[in-house]
Every structure is written in C-alpha cells, then in structure tokens.
Amino acid sequence: MSWVPIIEALVLIGILGALGTVYVADPVCDDVNATLPLELLVIHFENDHYTTLGGKRKIRDLEAEIRKLTKLRHANVLRVLGVKLVIPQSNAPPQLIILSEQAPPLTLYDVLQDCENLREERSLEYLTQILTGLDALHKIGLVHRGIDPRAVYLSSTENGQPKIIKLGKCAFYTQLLDLHRSAALSRRIPPFKEVVVPEAWQSKDYKASFSQYTIQRDIHAVGTVFLQMLLGLDMMDRYQDIHAALKACKHSHTIAPLSSHPCTAYLSHELHTSALSMIVPSKKAHESCASLLKSLSIASLGSPPMPPRTPSMAIPCTLPTSHSRILC
User: Fold this and answer.
1) 210 with 132, same domain?
2) Is the pLDDT of residue 226 over 70?
3) Pair (198, 60) in one structural domain
4) Is the pLDDT of residue 206 over 80?
5) Phi-psi category of 74—alpha, beta or left, where left has phi over 0 and alpha has psi -120 to 50?
6) Domain identity same for 46 and 141
7) CA gap 287, 281 in Å, rounded
8) How many domains does the chain divide into?
9) Which of 133, 141, 191, 266 could form a disulfide with 77 if both were Cys (CB 3.0 to 4.6 A apart)?
10) Do 50 and 135 fall into the same domain?
11) pLDDT digit string, tens, across residues 158-204
12) Does the residue 28 lie in any domain?
C-alpha cells in the first residue's frame, strides 16, 4: 500500500506506548460518516540483536503475519490497515510501522472494575461476539495469543443497542512482547508487569511450552474471560480451579452479600458444559469456535429475552448497597 498519501492526510499526536510510539489521528475525508479514527504504531528495534541475520528474520516473520491480519475485515476484530518494515542499509535500527483502527476507549476490564461482574445474559452476548471474532481470526490461519479483559474493547452503538465487542491486540502484540522479553526492543520502553496466572488455571499448551500458541490456548483464554465476566476479575485468586468456580455459579441463584462474591445467575447445563470444555478440553475432541457458537446458540434459546434498553441505559447497573454487588 502507498503510505505517503495516508501520512500526509493525518494530524498526528505522538504518544509513547508500551512498545513504541503511537500516533493517534483522524483521516481527512469528504464523507464525515466514513471517518475511521486511526492509530499508527512505530516500533524501533534498537537492540543490536535485530541487526543480525537471525534478528532480521524474526521481524520479517512478524511483518508477514501482520500482512495476513490486514486482509481480515470483521465487525468483532479491530482492523489492521497496513504494515511496513524498514530495514536500513546502515547500522540504523529497523523500524516496524503498523497502521490500524483506533481502539475504543472502553475495555471489558474497565467495565468489570466498575460493575464487578455481569449478568448471565450480557456475559453470553459478549462471549458470542468474542468467539465470532476469534473464529474469523482462526480461519485465516492466525491465533490471537493474548486474550484477556484488556484486549476486549466495547464499541458504542446508537439507539441504546448492545455494545459491539472488538478484539484488539491480535497476534502481533504478544509476539512483540515475546521479542522484547528475549531481546529488549529498546532501553526507552518502561518495564511492564507480567500477569501471573495460577498453575491450576493455565492451559495444557501453556504448561507444555510458554511460547507455544495454539487455537486451544486461545479458546482456554476465552473461557477464563467468560468466567471473569460472571465472577469478577479476581476470580482466579478466589477459586482454586475451574471446577470450584463453576460450582459457585451452579449454586448461586440470587444476589448475595458483597463479601461472598457470588455468580449472578444459575448457569444452564449448556453454558456450564461450554465453559468447562473451553478450559478443560476433552482428550478425544477439542472444541472450535464454530462448535462453541453452535452450543451457545442452543443455550440462548432456553434463556429469557433481555429487556429492551434505552439510550440512557448505556451500562445498566444496580446501585450498590450493603447487601448486594454491582451487577451489569
């Protein structure tokens, strides 16, 4: 793609991000309804390792995978519009430039910090959208590598319709983190806090190899996010394993005192089975996003319809009292 017209059409604001400089911009467009807020991520590979043949091969492989991602257009995945790798002839550091759709400001992590947990109907709605976006990613031969509540964005809609889920930080973001762990991209990048997952909640593929990223590892991460929607962000700290967490869901029918951290609803048999199969897959057959979506569609048929929302109810929550949790 031609970068010159795009760069000239942008009003850029440089922000030092976790892995490089992020430029936030709105394109110059005659049709205001077609304006797509953009982000330009510029990564400098300043470590001498990336000027070696092995280092250059790693970032060329990364660029090739991002090019795959640019071909994906899906409502539940943040769009990556272009990528350009610049490897100077001199000893100057290589640069990777990634142009993408600007992520919405609200993440699932933000929502769960405010609301603590979601109702079963809302969790099922978000889970369906997450799996739909992930299925599109898997179909082009990519895995996400880093699904967690911070990588799930909520895009606002008009007329009080449910928010649209968009998966962000797809594929390349975790690859960049792994490269930084093995050979720091730049001394200017601040240290980042590693998320420690308790062993009982780790996927089998993770235990086999930290750097082994598979479809099943993605689906395991989605199952964990689903239970976090139901039980809260600190779910893995409060429950020994998935069986203890699902038992809490299965036996919680009503809103209980704040200190008990209950699930918000009784899980149907289908949802209980789906959650278990995502995190503890069968030895004989692994679930796919498509098979899970089929199971969830059956489960949703047995769920009562959600009440209509009004524009003033962007994220409806029950006001907290001394005897209840905040539910969304």
Assistant:
1) yes
2) yes
3) no
4) no
5) beta
6) no
7) 7
8) 2
9) 133
10) no
11) 776 778 999 999 999 999 989 988 898 887 777 667 778 888 898 88
12) yes
Could you give the CA distance from residue 20 to residue 102 in angstroms, rounded to a whole number? 15
What's the rounded Cα separation, in Å, for the pair 11 and 202?
Answer: 43
Q: What is the extent of the structural domain holding 122?
A: 108-301
Same domain, 81 and 154: no
Rounded distance, CA 218 to CA 95, Å? 29
Task: Please report, for the domain that includes residue 76, its CATH number.
Answer: 3.30.200.20
The token duo for 236 is 């893995």
Residue 318 neighbours by CB under 8 Å, 6+ apart: 255, 324, 326, 327
- Cα separation, 220 vs 162, in Å, equals 25
Tokens 């790693």 sit on residue: 58
Residue 194 placed within a domain: yes
Q: What is the dihedral of CA 297, 113, 150, 242, to 10 degrees?
A: -60
Helix or strand or coil: residue 191? Answer: coil
Residues 231 and 125 in one domain: yes
**What 8-state DSSP symbol labels residue 328?**
-
Last residue of a domain, one of 74, 101, 128: 101
The predicted pLDDT at position 258 comes to: 37
Q: At what angle do helices 215-231 and 120-139 cross, to 10 degrees?
A: 170
| Percentage with pLDDT > 70 across the chain | 73
What does the DSSP 8-state code read for residue 260? G
pLDDT in the model for residue 269: 79
DSSP labels, 64-117:
HHHHHHHT---TTB--EEEEEEE--SSSSPPEEEEEEEPPPS-BHHHHHHHHSB
Tens digits of residue pLDDT in 50-78 = 999 999 999 999 999 999 999 999 999 99
**Phi and psi dihedrals of 170, rounded to 5?**
-75, 130
